[in-house]
Amino acid sequence: MGRIFISAGHGSRVNGITDPGAVVAGTTEAREMILTRDLVVTELRSRGVEVLSVPDNLNASQAISWINSRARPDDVALEIRADAFTNPSVRGATVYFIANNDQRRRNAEQLLLALIRRVPQLPSRGARPDTDTGLGSLPFTRQIVCGSLLMTIGFLTNPDDRFIIQNQRRDVALGIADGLVAWVRGTALPPDPNAIVYPEINISINGQVYGEKGILVNGNAYVPIDLTDRLGLDLSREPNIRRLNYRQVVFIKAVDLRDYTIAVGWDAQSRTVLLRSILKVCPGALDRIMGNGNTTSVQLIMFLKSNNEAALTQFPQIADLYRQEGSIEGVNYDIAFSQMLLETNYLRFGGEIRASQNNFAGLGDVGGGPQGASFPNAQIGVRAHIQLLKAYASTEPLVQEVVAPRFRFVTRGIAPLVDQLSGRWSADPQYGVKITAILRRYYEMAQIL
């Protein structure tokens, strides 16, 4: 049986100074990984496994040389790290292996499974080839002469992961030790006596039964990630998708698909999760401003009235106007209508702009007046809104005479997607997200999505 080399990433010294790695919430990556590494070493030795701890006073290249000068063909090497990201919601563990090596991929999957068994609260981000990293390769997986893997235990920038690393350190160490022992001995992980069995559920996509089953986890429907390819989505690298490894299949939470143009429902009687993709728009085109709308005037009116029963009292033709004016200029009137609902609070107004101004999208006046632009009637107000959207989303000329006061000041075609209106049309960085959320809601109500 071979030996195990284990290194605590970012615990090295560079030019005589300790490299702390990520520094978060009063701790450092180096500190947390060294403490975890030491527990792993202790656990491995208690099991009679020969383990060599890479000295912490070596830099990355020296650590690789240190291992290579001692390694034998049947030895294995692991470096453990913690990750960090600007978005604190991103979390989970990953094991990286050298690309195009199926044996090393299986080792990585086994090591990750062992960790998640011991710490099920830690999400798995999967075993990944080192080509998925920012640099396209990892020295630790490429330059070591024996089999080697690199594990990121979690994200220090995520409070939940940080809590697990600091407060469940022994469980983490036991999981890593389980995986390393199975790897170096060339054996499978022993059966997990505490393995959870999730109840199966059915899956329906656009009214058709999907051949594979989903699972129910704590009341939430999970579906195999492979089915998203059928829906025209690639979620394999999306950082905010919750993944769950279960019986060698990766599952994702069904409700998360709502952010990707998929409607999600549930039929309790048949225990079926109902997935419906948009039928008239190609996946990914939901947020493109230039294009055709998909709803009828009746559908727009029904959605508007469901949110404001009195909405049509002053503007009875508002749905027809948006469909008409949007179609003339080639602007997706569904998007324009959603923006109008956001800006006017479903035609309640109540802000600086009054209903009498016929200004449905917070259009500013060239003179810079505090109350924005005013228009003689609802049709001209809608037309101005559509024209300004076209200015942002397209370089094509207007079909009708310009009535939008600030049309000529917009850099044409600068924002073809809804989210690109954020920070331009409105200072709100979530402006585009809010418009799209409204759009999805009434597409779901209209059974389009």
Annotation keywords:
single chain, about 450 residues, alpha/beta, Aminopeptidase, Lysozyme, 3 domains, 8-stranded mixed beta sheet, 6-stranded mixed beta sheet, 18 strands, about 30% helix, elongated
Give your account of this protein's structure.
The chain is of the alpha/beta class and 449 residues long. It has three domains: 4-185, Aminopeptidase; 200-277, no CATH class; 297-445, Orthogonal Bundle (Lysozyme), CATH 1.10.530.10. The chain is built from twelve helices and 18 strands. Helix 1 crosses helix 6 (169-185), helix 8 crosses helix 9 (318-329) and helix 9 runs parallel beside helix 11 (378-393). It is elongated, with a radius of gyration of 28 Å. Residues 279-284 have low confidence and may be disordered.
Count the DSSP helices: 12
Q: What oligomerization state is this entry in?
A: single chain
Work out the strand percent.
15-25%
- What's the level 1 CATH class of the largest domain? Alpha Beta
Q: What's the number of structural domains?
A: 3
Distance between the termini: 56 Å
- The 3D shape can be described as elongated
| CATH topology label of the largest domain | Aminopeptidase
Q: Main sheet?
A: 8 strands, mixed
Q: Please, what is the CATH homologous superfamily of the largest domain?
A: Zn-dependent exopeptidases
Low-confidence stretches: 279-284
Order of secondary-structure elements: EEEEEHEHEEHEHEHHEEEEHEEEEHHHHH
Structural class: alpha/beta
Average pLDDT works out at: 88
- Percent helix, as a range, is 25-40%
